[in-house]
From TrEMBL:
The keyword Magnesium applies. Acetylated. Deacetylation by the SIR2-homolog deacetylase activates the enzyme. Residues 36-91 form the Acetyl-coenzyme A synthetase N-terminal domain. Belongs to the ATP-dependent AMP-binding enzyme family. The gene is acs. Residues 102-484 form the AMP-dependent synthetase/ligase domain. Keywords: Acetylation, ATP-binding, Ligase, Magnesium, Metal-binding, Nucleotide-binding. InterPro entries: Ac_CoA_lig, ACAS_N, AMP-bd_C, AMP-bd_C_sf, AMP-binding_CS, AMP-dep_synth/lig_dom, ANL_N_sf. This is Acetyl-coenzyme A synthetase. It catalyses: acetate + ATP + CoA = acetyl-CoA + AMP + diphosphate. Catalyzes the conversion of acetate into acetyl-CoA (AcCoA), an essential intermediate at the junction of anabolic and catabolic pathways. AcsA undergoes a two-step reaction. In the first half reaction, AcsA combines acetate with ATP to form acetyl-adenylate (AcAMP) intermediate. In the second half reaction, it can then transfer the acetyl group from AcAMP to the sulfhydryl group of CoA, forming the product AcCoA.
Length: 664
């Protein structure tokens, strides 16, 4: 458990409160705290009736459902089970013949600033045509398709096309390595990969297709029958005869009509791999109806979406935020959204502000790590400060991915939102499918650094290790007591792990989020104090410490043992620190530096650059209990540079702490 004490202290001292303006309340869909409380009361009184009403109002059903919740096989909850629908139909076809038909669905800005637009009608045609291409390549309902693509209109098209034919997609973030890709292909048993030759990020051309080839060549990927490659840049890439085809070739001659395949409500819409507390990433499986319902509803509630909004979520489609708030939610809600290929710091660190001005963005949703790095850039260089751009189009700001510190919150509020725009600090996870604890802009008074209150229907609570509620002001374990439609259904291929990870018996059947939290004494507002398992949050990316350890010890010619912990970092939230015992004598000086670099690059190859440890320390051994368990809490203190004041009576080899504390 990481110590939540410093965060708890800051909850207790944070007393700034920002009430929504009367005008914001008046214009909002959920207007005022009374309206929020009424929805919560409705959900409390009869949860099934509440969810049934929303599912009927917000989704287009091919066949209506008759049973709302099937809880006969807990925790494998089933929602709206006998209903039938199609996610792509709900995002596209349903808008045809309405004013949304000719509205812009996506404004795409490429890395180099070039802008492309597609209307809903055009997007439907593109999705249908690509869906036909997938079918022509042998992809069928129920198959899994890996998507390894840059942020592009085609990335969204590929996801929607899978949904259209009832194939389950698994998007792999473009920063993951060949090895990580191979593991996901194998675990999912995928039949196809959709990729691009290269991706453009920060003016650099980075390979994607070559990594797919490398991953498949590692073996065990015989299930892959076809690889479709978008020619994103003019540079040629290697194509394997018989298996590979370009995107242009695949759609050539395909019609722009493709009837959606209506699937059962519980049909797996996607599997998205995320890090857990053990070595192997988990394939989080989401349903079609429950996921989509929440994707649409949270667009309407949390972002209070209006027809004239220009919505911009900066997340990559490789993460859950890019699934719910790029690929599905905005389309299901009929929004116009901006999709951005590049990075916030290219060609300069004012790119985000410049794009907000250029496209008249009204809702801006990004991560604390981006905000912190842009604060730093603006403080170092006046020219990239947001004050240089006209941000008057903004009306709402959002934050996601990690706790936002009150200082960053205040900077965002003042310098980007001009104290006019509410900030929705949305707490949620890959497993929750959409927001679960968040302010509503026209209702909730805001407190910097707090995600405030659960959404209606989300029975969030803080409990102790036996599942008993703890009083406000006392920290504990965040749980959600009742099931809700957008929750994770299972871990792909591993139902036992699903049960064990999320519904431990001592917690009375509550969903265990894996985060610590505390509620404020006065308002009962939630503040997330960070993960309580072995998961790190580096720049908003989830990384399992065990996953990185496994990668390190996989370098069998060098590494005997490794332990990985997190250390607080001003910019990235947490930084990865690895303690390594080599098979040879402990290196020092330049030699230690060279080996550390080699190991860092190795981890980059095993998992991806985001998993590279920032700091690698070498020791003769690791601090262990007499029973042989690595004492991670001591390593955390060492990583932070703290003096050890903790109990070390069970430590076998106390002298090692001093050695590890030296920075080689
Ligand atoms: C959506 C997403 C989930 C973990 C989660 C928590 C952290 C996300 C947060 C937040 C504090 C917020 N987290 N949002 N912590 N405040 N507003 O990020 O999903 O990648 O699965 O990460 O991120 O620790 O458990 P995912």
């Amino acid at each position: 458990m990481s110590s939540p004490s410093s965060s708890i202290e800051s909850v207790l001292v944070e007393n700034r409160v920002f009430e929504p303006s009367a005008a914001t309340v008046a214009a909002a869909r959920v207007s005022g705290m009374k309206a929020y409380e009424a929805l919560c009361a409705e959900a409390d009184k009869d949860p099934e009736a509440f969810w049934a009403r929303l599912a009927k109002e917000h989704l287009a059903w091919h066949k209506p459902f008759t049973q709302t919740l099937d809880a006969s096989d807990k925790p494998f909850y089933k929602w709206f089970q006998d209903g039938e629908l199609n996610a792509s139909h709900n995002c596209l076809d349903r808008h045809m013949g309405t004013p949304v038909e000719n509205k812009t669905a996506i404004v795409f800005e490429a890395d180099d600033g070039a802008v492309t637009r597609v209307t809903y009608k055009e997007l439907l045609a593109k999705v249908s045509q690509f869906a036909n291409a997938l079918k022509a390549r042998g992809v069928k309902t129920g198959d899994r398709v890996i998507i390894y693509m840059p942020m592009t209109i085609e990335g969204v098209v590929a996801m929607q096309a899978c949904a259209r034919i009832g194939a389950t997609h698994s998007v792999v973030f473009g920063g993951f390595s060949a090895k990580a890709l191979q593991e996901r292909i194998q675990d999912a048993g995928a039949v196809a990969v959709v990729t691009a030759n290269y991706q453009m990020r920060g003016g650099k051309e980075l390979p994607l297709k070559a990594i797919v080839d490398e991953g498949i060549a590692m073996g065990g990927c015989e299930s892959i029958k076809t690889v479709i490659t978008l020619q994103r840049t003019p540079t040629a890439c290697h194509m394997v005869a018989g298996r590979d085809i370009t995107w242009a070739e695949a759609i050539a001659g395909q019609g722009t009509d493709c009837p959606p395949v209506f699937v059962g409500a519980e049909h797996p819409l996607f599997v998205l791999y995320t890090s857990g507390s053990t070595g192997k990433p988990k394939g989080v499986q989401h349903s079609t109806a429950g996921f989509l319902l929440w994707a649409r509803l949270t667009m309407l509630w949390t972002f209070d979406l209006r027809p004239e909004d220009l919505f911009w979520c900066t997340a990559d489609i490789g993460w859950i935020t890019g699934h719910t708030y790029v690929a599905y939610g905005p389309l299901a809600a009929g929004a116009t959204q901006l999709v951005f290929e590049g990075v916030p710091t290219y060609p300069h660190a004012g790119r985000f502000w410049q794009m907000i001005e250029k496209h008249k963005v009204s809702i801006f949703y990004t991560a604390p790590t981006a905000i912190r790095s842009l604060i730093k850039a603006a403080e170092g260089d006046e020219k990239v400060h947001p004050k240089n751009w006209n941000l008057d189009s903004l009306r709402l700001l959002g934050s996601v991915g990690e706790p936002i510190n009150p200082e960053a919150w205040m900077w965002y509020f003042r310098n980007v939102g001009h104290e006019r725009c509410p900030i929705v600090d949305t707490f949620w996870q890959t497993e929750t499918g959409g927001h679960v604890i968040t302010p509503l802009p026209g209702a909730t008074p805001l407190v910097p650094g707090s995600c405030t209150l659960p959404l209606p229907g989300i029975d969030a609570a803080i409990v102790d290790e036996a599942g008993h509620d703890v009083p406000n002001g006392a920290g504990g374990i965040l749980v959600i007591k009742k099931p809700w439609p957008s929750m994770i259904r299972t871990i792909w291929g591993d139902p036992e792990r699903f049960k064990k990870s999320y519904f431990p018996p001592e917690l009375k059947g509550y969903y265990l989020a894996g985060d610590g939290a505390v509620r404020s004494a006065d308002r009962g507002y939630f503040r997330i104090t960070g993960r309580i398992d072995d998961v790190l949050n580096v720049s908003g990316h989830r990384m399992g410490t065990m996953e990185i350890e496994s990668a390190l010890v996989a370098k069998t010619d060098m590494v005997a043992e490794a332990a990985v912990v997190g250390r607080p970092d001003d910019l990235t939230g947490e930084a990865i620190v690895a303690f390594v015992v080599l098979k040879r004598a402990r290196p020092t000086g330049d030699e230690a530096k060279a080996i550390a670099k080699e190991l860092r690059d190795w981890v980059g190859k095993e998992i991806g650059p985001i998993a590279k440890p920032k700091d690698i320390r070498f020791g003769d051994n690791l601090p262990k209990t007499r029973s042989g368990k690595i004492m991670r809490r001591l390593l955390r203190a060492v990583a932070k540079g703290e003096a050890i004041t903790q109990d070390i009576s069970t430590l076998e080899n106390p002298a090692i702490l001093e050695q590890l504390a030296q920075n080689n």
